[in-house]
Prior knowledge:
Shape of chain A: elongated
Number of helices of chain A: 8
Mean pLDDT of chain B: 89
CATH topology of the largest domain in chain A: Rossmann fold
Number of domains of chain B: 3
Oligomer: heterodimer
Strand order of the largest sheet of chain A: 5-4-3-6-7-11-10
Number of strands of chain A: 30
Strand order of the largest sheet of chain B: 5-4-3-6-7-11-10
Largest interface: A-B, 43 and 45 residues
Helix content of chain B: 10-25%
Distance between the termini of chain B: 56 Å
Radius of gyration of chain A: 27 Å
Strand content of chain A: 35-45%
Amino acid sequence: MPAFNANQEKLEQLARLGWYHSMKLPDGRLIPGFQSLETLRNRIAQFPVPADLRGKRALDIGAWDGWFTFELERRGAQVMAVDSTSFERFRVAHDLMASQAEYRIDDVCRLSPAKIGYFDIVMFLGVLYHLKHPLLALERVCELSTDLACVESFVTDDGSDPTAKPLMEFYETTELCGQFDNWVGPNTACLLAMCRSAGFARVRLESVLDHRAHVTCYRSWPEIETAKEPAPYLTSVENAATRDREFSSTDDDYVAIWFKSPRADLTPADVFPRIGAYGSHPVFLQSTGGDGWHVNCKLPPGLAPGWHAAALRTVDSEWGNPVRIGVDLSAEQRRQRPASNGASEIQVAIVTDGKTWERNLIHTGLNSCVSLWISGLPEEADRDGVAVWLNGDDLPAVFLSEPDPQGLRQVNAMLPTGAQPGDYTVSAGFGDGVSAPVPVRLV
Amino acid sequence: MAVERAAGDPKFHDLVQQQVALLSTKGWYHSIELPDGNVIQGMIGIEALKGRLAAFPIPADLTGKRVLDVGAWTGWCSFEMERRGAQVVAVDCIEFEEFREAHRMIGSKVDYRILDVDELTPASVGLFDCVLFFGVLYHLRNPLLGLEKICALTKDTAFVESFVTDDSSCTMEFYETNELGGQIDNWFGPSVQCATALCRSAGFARVNLEYVSERRAGITCHRRWEPPPDPAEPAPLLYSAVNNRTNDVQFHPGKDEYICVYFQSDVPGLTHDQLRLEIDEYGAPILILVNLRGQEWQANLRVPPGLGAGSHQVRLRTAGSAHSNAFTIFVCTDGALPVPDRSRMAHPEAITEPAPQICEVRNGMTESDIFHGHRNEYVCCRFQTTETGLERESVILRIDEAVQPVLFLTNLGNGRWQANSRLPAGLTPGTHSVRIGTIRSPLSLPGKIMFMDPD
């Protein structure tokens, strides 16, 4: 749609409509708003938003009159603007600017990648404290962003006390500024903690100006230039609650990673877990004895359904060995195995109940487990590459032993809680190699 | 600010860790009384469990009631509710073998379901007379969302028990990792004031703090107002109840929307705590109350959780008055709002009333008679009629030849009414006629509006 030639009288009329953002039009004229151009430029300048956004997708949540939308578009981004209610001023400005930005009316907590896709950069300015579920909204923002999110919010303090405990005021009615659309007021420490908790890998406080905190949230860890310490070795990765390798993007799932590192003095700040392309900061770290460690991190929001590589590095190391985990797997994806890397003839020598060691007989119920002794696995086979099937359905392998003197390796796999008694077959595989099925009875 | 904080308090941390260690050796959290008189000793004794329950006004006889126990754990509360005659659903986020064992030993009929609080909806578990929500709130990442879910399931009363902080203001502590008691499954610690405010904000009409003891609080949350007294004050007159974003009577399922209520009350100096607003039988707390002029007031409230699709009646009273008239709002998706039956107006024999008279037609945004086709503009038609008891669906508003759905109707008193509608699409610049009628009357003489293209 071509920009219409606005006359001065109309601009004044629009100004009377009550603009919040000032707007500089393509012909050089200005719609004066409550916030001056200088104020608006200063707000965006608090964040490391690149001057050149060509080829990037940007999302402006809480667009209001649209200054930030049009500014991101001016920098070359393909922009979507979202607001909870339709603003006529946005639409007028959109026409005046001949903007291509898409305008969408939706609540932030109802946005999802399935609806609107992913964005390299998400602007989330002046919205958080208007929301009743601030952490949920930050999770949505995190889920939608692939690179960084710029979060600006009212805070109750000036951010100068680094020891402040995270605390959030709750406004039941009009306590904050007489407006009933303000719900929460976090202090700066709480805002930063919630941004981390939402799933961002790195969170940086840029500034606090007049009770407005500016926080840049990154989805990935920085890459190091040269490694000064050996990479950690991942021995096991599993869902911290269900103890298998499958995760649900809607369940606030945590990833438990066991690894070996020569560093004896690791703290959570030294450990950098990564799932797919997204970093996730540790919520729990403990030594398991020797050079063994156990770290838990949140499954980062926004991972597409399918298999993703979990990896880890320590502060000065390269990334360690990747281990596959599944997110929101379809039955088809669950059966997908890694490409062959030269498996030899695989045979299941023995099948027992994982607890009672009864042969070819497995007790169903909670924590029901099957143990297999397998020959023919290649030396480099790892737990996550080994597949165990019950009547063709994938069972997560939770343990893989080193070879015993006969060359047999023990694999343990969990049975589904709801497995029904009856006659089944168990088979094992690695790469393209699949063993012959072995009969078992579930009781 | 906090005088003493549980998070970072080594004594509190040690206490929780001792409990965790004890639990890992015992296995049973709640003690359980078996039908043969034996007791399985859990971490929490029978007396403590009875004491906690007794702090809430839960009826001794729950025959015929449906009760939901959220966060049932070993199940003592579920089995106690069943013992009192209720039909019980117990919910937990993970399955406890001990619950199943106790269930079997007691011969219980409690329906045990493994669901997250987020998954609890009237569709998944139904509605309940009473809901127990013990020891769950501070484990939720979105505590207010959790309480909204609980409110949506509650027909009458919810009993909420939670960890609370000592802060004397309305705040929540946020626990990023294991700050509270060394456990990573604690997210928010509300102050007492905040816990009660959250319950009201979730949509409960009345919230009563039962006790605060040893960093735990018990709160009773009622969905209904107390029964009205013998009226001592005149009942208010309800003009309208509209969506504060769109100024019409339509509300969208699942959205966070607010009702703007306009009413007249003769009670001088009316305050928040005197107002009793309700949608159907559910009371709802108000967020703001503004005196517009004289006896005319505006109150805003959030659409209470759990309203299904369809029409709902908004009413209000003051603490000492009878109920006002009812005003109908709709919960439906766009395009599903019921509109007048046009076939009825086509029959001349249906016309029994004289035509209304238009007093004025205005742009609801600017109060002028000029329209630009802006998205939020609405037509506001004020008219006079001798008909009484008009309803939104019996009023017809026509712009040129196009019948427009009446989105809003209010009685202004003395035979004056106001009907709002949207503009039809594709209006050409110039003047257009607006006529109003009812399903029992002819259309009025036309009023005029002016349409000016934005460019």
